[in-house]
Amino acid sequence: MATIDAPKAPSKAAAPEKPAPAPVTGGLRHQDGRTFQVVSFRPADEASGVDIMTVQEIIVYGCITQVPEVPEYVLGVINLRGNVIPILNLRRCLGMPDQPANDATRIVVMDLTGRTVGVVVDGVSEVLRLSHEDISPAPPSLLRAVWNDEPPRRGHWPAADVLFESCLSLAGRGVGVIMTGMGQDGASGLLALRQAGWTTIGQDEASCAIYGMPRAAMQLGAVEHEHPLAQLGAALVAACEGRLLAKARV
Hints:
The chain is 16% helix and 28% strand. The protein is α/β, with parallel strands linked by helices.
C-alpha cells in the first residue's frame, strides 16, 4: 500500500492533544442542564464545531496509509495504538478545494454514529461553553421526518418517494437529491419535484456503491444535475444560492 507523507513533524515528539476545557459537572451538560461544550475547528475559513463528548482525542497530522477502492474523501487509515481508524478529509466532504497539510493541521478522532473515525481539519480553535440560549432555533422551513402507518410503497417503508412527494405541499421551490441505493425508490417522487420547479440532483454512477436509485431517476428524467459524491455538498450549496444553471424543465 502507498502512503501519504505528512509534513515534517516538530523536532520534539508531539503528544496527542486532548481538549482541556474547564471541568464540567456531570460530563457534557452542566448541573443546571443549560450549558454544553463544543470543540471548535476550521475547514478553510469556516468555523465548525462538534459535541465534545464525541471527541476521543486530537492528534497531529501524520502518515496515512492509503487503501484502494474508497470514496475520494477517505484519505486512508492510521494505526492508533493498535486500532485501525479511517481518516476522512473534511474539505472534500464539504466540496472545498484541497490544501496541503501544515503545522496547524490536526486529526480529530471522534465517535461517528458508533464508529471511530478521524477527521482532518485545518486547525482546532478552542473549546466553547455554550448555553441553549446561544443557539438560534432552526428556521420553520426545516422539516422533521415522521413515521406513519401507510403501507409500503413499491415494497419500501420508509420510502423516498413518499418523502419527496410530501415536499410538494411546501410553498416555494427547493432542492431534491437522490444518492446511491438499490431499486427505483425515489425516482418518481424526484420527478414530481422537478416538474414542480424544484432543482434536482443525482449522484453519478462512478461514485455510487450501487447505481440503482439514481439510475432509475436519470432514466425517468427526474435528475437535472449529476455530480460525484465528493461534489454533492458544493452542488447543493450552489443550488440553494441559485448558481446551478437549470436545464430545460420536463
